[in-house]
Amino acid sequence: MGKKLLAIINTPRTIFGWGMYLLNKKKSLILMDIDAWEDYLPKCKSTFFKMSYLLTNYKAFRNIFLFRLTKGQRFFLRILFQPLESLELGGNVGGGLKIYHGYASVIQPASMGEQCSIWQNVTIGRRPKKGKFKDKPTIGNNVNIYTGAIVIGDIYIGNNVEIGAGAIVTKDVPDNSIVIGNPMRIIKRD
């Protein structure tokens, strides 16, 4: 009840976010993001209230929402809704992104599909190699990346993949797989 009341009290503040949503070219991605957070939402049919509730109560959602906005919109809305400073988002990320906690995470894929979930302390990005430039990972749809996992380099992660907590992924992973460990190993391939 407290979170609902907080969202209602913050309605004037979220009206600006709603306006930016309505003017944004990525409306469909934002709507998919809101739907991905359904487990956290009270029963409600209003997209405005859902967005208001998430912006008011979940900083990781704020980061996703700000990521979808234009640079000018982001600057203004950051004043009204402080994002989680230790969560960095970049690259081409599909809709339905859900970030649990998000603390100390860097999410910079070349591209990431739809309906992906990421937990805290995850790194997705370039593989540092002296004198060489390596690209970022390409990640499919319905991928779950658990706490402390590292996914780096010019690799492909297939659809419906689970990357276990603490795994270090530096090689391609086929569809419908579960990956664990350091060095990584595939424990299930479907």
Please describe what this structure looks like:
- The structure is a single chain.
- By secondary structure, this protein is an alpha/beta fold.
- The chain has helices at 2-9, 11-23, 27-36, 47-57, 59-68, 71-80; strands spanning 87-89, 92-93, 98-99, 105-107, 111-112, 117-118, 123-125, 138-139, 144-145, 150-152, 156-157, 162-163, 168-169, 177-180, 185-189.
- The strands form three sheets. A six-stranded mixed β-sheet has the order 3-6-9-12-14-15.
- Helix 4 packs across helix 5.
- The longest helix has 13 residues, at 11-23.
- The radius of gyration is 17 Å and the shape is elongated.
Summarize the SSE layout with pairings.
Elements: H1 2-9, H2 11-23, H3 27-36, H4 47-57, H5 59-68, H6 71-80, E1 87-89, E2 92-93, E3 98-99, E4 105-107, E5 111-112, E6 117-118, E7 123-125, E8 138-139, E9 144-145, E10 150-152, E11 156-157, E12 162-163, E13 168-169, E14 177-180, E15 185-189
Parallel strand pairs: 1-4, 2-5, 3-6, 4-7, 5-8, 6-9, 7-10, 8-11, 9-12, 10-13, 12-14
Antiparallel strand pairs: 14-15
